């Protein structure tokens, strides 16, 4: 085996595992309001992917703050607003949502992220659907 192949293999094993795969990813949000006639499907980007985390075996010996794990979260984001069609006049027909511009591995900030995955949440429409592309 040539030295180039051996070095390439060692480089890939060493740095391939430490590289994060956290990046903006396409996602569809379904938005409904009880008063409105339609469900709005919004195509946006969210942060998703893998972040390297080192979990200590001595958890009971460390402070709780030292046990936080890195998650794929927003580095830069902007908010866009969509109009939900079919709403009566007395209802506010707007919905604002985040659009990921860039992502990073870091601690989850509960000011703008849902840090807990809930299995009971559903992401589908129960009313006729309209599509909103960003």
TrEMBL record:
Key words of the record: Disulfide bond, Glycoprotein, Hormone, Secreted, Signal
One Pfam family linked to the record: Cys_knot
Native source organism of the sequence: Chloroceryle aenea (American pygmy kingfisher)
GO molecular function, a single term: hormone activity
This protein's name: Thyrotropin subunit beta
Gene name tied to this protein: Tshb
GO biological process terms held by the UniProt record: G protein-coupled receptor signaling pathway
Subunit structure of this chain's protein: Heterodimer of a common alpha chain and a unique beta chain which confers biological specificity to thyrotropin, lutropin, follitropin and gonadotropin.
Higher taxonomy: Eukaryota, Metazoa, Chordata, Craniata, Vertebrata
Leader sequence segment: 1-16
């Amino acid at each position: 085996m040539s030295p180039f192949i051996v070095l390439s293999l060692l480089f890939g094993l060493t740095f391939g595992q430490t590289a994060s795969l956290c990046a903006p990813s396409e996602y569809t949000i379904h938005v409904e309001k009880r008063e409105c006639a339609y469900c709005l499907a919004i195509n946006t980007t969210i942060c998703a992917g893998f972040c390297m985390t080192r979990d200590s075996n001595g958890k009971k010996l460390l402070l709780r703050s030292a046990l936080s794990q890195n998650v794929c979260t927003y580095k830069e984001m902007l908010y866009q607003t969509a109009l939900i069609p079919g709403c009566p006049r007395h209802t506010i027909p707007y919905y604002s949502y985040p659009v990921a511009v860039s992502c990073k591995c870091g601690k989850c900030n509960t000011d703008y992220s849902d840090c807990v995955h809930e299995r009971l949440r559903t992401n589908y429409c129960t009313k006729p659907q309209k599509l909103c592309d960003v």
